[in-house]
Specification:
The chain is α+β, with helices and mostly antiparallel strands. It has helices at 2-13, 69-82; strands spanning 20-25, 27-35, 38-45, 60-63, 86-93, 99-106. The chain is 24% helix and 40% strand. The strands form 2 sheets. A 3-stranded antiparallel beta sheet has the order 1-5-6. Strand 2 and strand 3 (38-45) form a beta hairpin. The radius of gyration is 17 Å and the shape is globular.
Amino acid sequence: MKYLTSILFTLLSFNCYSATHVYDTKIKKVFVHETDNNGTIYFIFEDMQNGDDCLKSGNIAATNDNVMFDKILSIGLAALMSKSNVGYTINGCSSSGHPRLTNLWVE
């Protein structure tokens, strides 16, 4: 019983991190939309992922509750205009049902 309790405690103490990382892709489109009186930036990438099986997978949403919201928009627009390769991370689903963008970087 002591052995089983130790194994159970160990398994429960691991962090569950389900983020999906995508590398070496390009941004095809960026648009801003008002959702529930909050701004949301939607991205369409050449390599679209939906790691958390969100209801809507056509766009990836960066929501303004992310402290990096303004920086994600700036990097996204710069990468779109310069046709630079980017990488991104999605984690969870937005309130509108799209994959939620948490990180964006230029490669």
